[in-house]
Predict the structure.
Amino acid sequence: MNDILAQAAEALNEKMQGADFPASAKFAITGLGGIVLDSSGARVSDDDADVTLTADADTFQDILSGELNPTNAFMSGKLSIDGDMGIAMQLASALA
C-alpha cells in the first residue's frame, strides 16, 4: 500500500470526523491510486463510488490542507469530476 495514500486517507478521516456524508466518493490521485470515502470513513481503495474526483497529488494535497478550495480546483481544471455533481458539492462543503 502506498504510504502517501494511507496518510491521505488518515487525513481525510480526521477532516471528515463528525461530518454527515451518506454517499460515496472516490479520490483518484493520478499515478498513485484511489481513496474511497463513504459512511464507514476513508480507505485506500479502487472501489466504485457515486462520484469520482480526479487530480494530481499536489492538487489533492492542497485541497486536503485547505490551501485550495475544491470548487476553485474544479473551475480551474485542476480537478475533474465524474458522477453525481450534487454529491461532489456536498463533499466540497464537508471538506471546507
